[in-house]
TrEMBL record:
It catalyses: NAD(+) + NADPH + H(+)(in) = NADH + NADP(+) + H(+)(out). GO terms for molecular function: NADP binding; oxidoreductase activity; proton-translocating NAD(P)+ transhydrogenase activity. The keyword Oxidoreductase applies. It holds the Pfam family PNTB_4TM. Its EC number is 7.1.1.1. This is proton-translocating NAD(P)(+) transhydrogenase. The transhydrogenation between NADH and NADP is coupled to respiration and ATP hydrolysis and functions as a proton pump across the membrane. It comes from Poriferisphaera corsica. Keywords: Cell inner membrane, Cell membrane, Membrane, NAD, NADP, Oxidoreductase, Translocase, Transmembrane, Transmembrane helix. One of its GO terms (biological process) is NADPH regeneration. It comes from the Bacteria. It is a multi-pass membrane protein. GO terms for cellular component: plasma membrane. Residues 22-106 form the NAD(P) transhydrogenase alpha subunit C-terminal domain.
Length: 112
């Protein structure tokens, strides 16, 4: 990793938490892209259910980041953006899961 990205304190030799957060964010994007492109279509619904659970964790983390003073206004902006995207994912996931479950329910008055 280039040394200009790591803001280390020579006294404590600690990496800046913002840089660690950016690294985790980039790795999450890479892993998410790889999972979505490699999973067969029959497993998309279970994956979406798991994704909803992860989005719940994302919501909690984004809210904590938004209310933290350590990241400043950029943290508030990124936290708000994460809350919006995680909320879209959770709501969309529940709508698709509800639609899928209706496909398996018995229809009233229909053929058996």
């Amino acid at each position: 990793m280039p040394t200009f990205l790591i803001n280390t304190d020579p006294a404590t030799n600690v990496i800046d938490p913002f840089v660690v957060s950016i690294i985790i964010f980039v790795l999450a994007i890479f892993i998410g892209f790889e999972i979505i492109t490699k999973v067969p279509s029959t497993l998309h619904t279970p994956l979406m259910s798991g994704s909803n659970a992860i989005s719940g964790i994302t919501l909690v983390g984004a809210l904590l980041c938004s209310f933290s003073d350590s990241f400043g206004s950029l943290g508030v902006f990124l936290g708000t953006l994460a809350v919006i995207f995680a909320t879209i994912n959770v709501v969309g996931g529940y709508m698709v899961t509800d639609r899928m479950l209706k496909m398996f329910s018995k229809k009233e008055g229909g053929d058996k």
